[in-house]
Design a protein that fits this description.
By secondary structure, the protein is of the alpha/beta class. The protein is built from ten helices and five strands. Helix 5 (75-82) crosses helix 6.
């Protein structure tokens, strides 16, 4: 199968293991829902997501890695060959497929949550968590990788500022917001677990009142 046809079949690639090893109380409360991490590039979604998945004994999925594996090319190559619009369509489809495998911990690309259909699917099948970071923190992290397609220009910091202006109001609609500051990732994971416990408590109280 060539690369283009593989990319076009993103929503068909698949089937991952279910959370057969679930043992953490939060995992049981999730049912079939997934934990979906959203936020800008450099916010720590993949790193925090992996450690959160280990803590909760859930499978971890990185949407960007799933797209690359399915398409047989890197995301910069997808942008270069197909363009951003085509990538976003594939991203939407692969996230829809991954959400059907829940419960999982899912790290999404920075632009994924901007899609209205994806936000609706996340609302129906998951709990969204915005990892929020300041500009200086984001820039320090993204400078470690030179392959970010949206930052391949003479003013990456200006681009990041514009992305923050456009995307932050949408990220703010997530169920939970966590500050992804310059702290050990285990501390951020602990903050996510605490916030999830509080979210479930509020949800249960709301259900009892209803």
């Amino acid at each position: 199968m060539n690369k283009i046809s593989r990319f076009n079949s993103l929503d068909e690639v698949g089937g991952q293991d279910q959370a057969s090893q679930r043992g953490h109380p939060l995992s049981r409360q999730l049912g079939t829902r997934s934990i979906v991490l959203v936020g800008l590039m450099g916010a720590g979604k993949s790193t925090v997501g992996r450690r959160l998945a280990q803590t909760l004994k859930l499978p971890f999925r990185d949407a960007d890695h799933e797209i690359e594996a399915a398409a047989g090319m890197t995301i910069p190559e997808i942008f270069a060959i197909h363009g951003e619009d085509h990538f976003r369509d594939g991203e939407r489809r692969v996230i829809a497929r991954l959400l059907q495998e829940g419960p999982i911990v899912l790290a999404t690309g920075g632009g994924a949550f901007m899609n209205e259909e994806t936000r609706q699917r996340v609302a129906e099948n998951g709990i969204s968590i915005w990892l929020k970071a300041d500009l200086d923190v984001l820039m320090r992290r993204v400078r470690k990788r030179s392959t970010r397609p949206l930052l391949q220009n003479p003013d990456p910091e200006g681009t990041m500022r514009r992305l923050m202006e456009v995307r932050h109001p949408v990220y703010a609609t997530a169920d939970i917001t966590i500050d992804s500051h310059e702290a050990p990732h285990d501390k951020v994971v602990a903050e996510v677990v605490r916030a999830l416990n509080e979210w479930f408590e509020r949800d249960e109280q709301g259900s009892a009142r209803g």
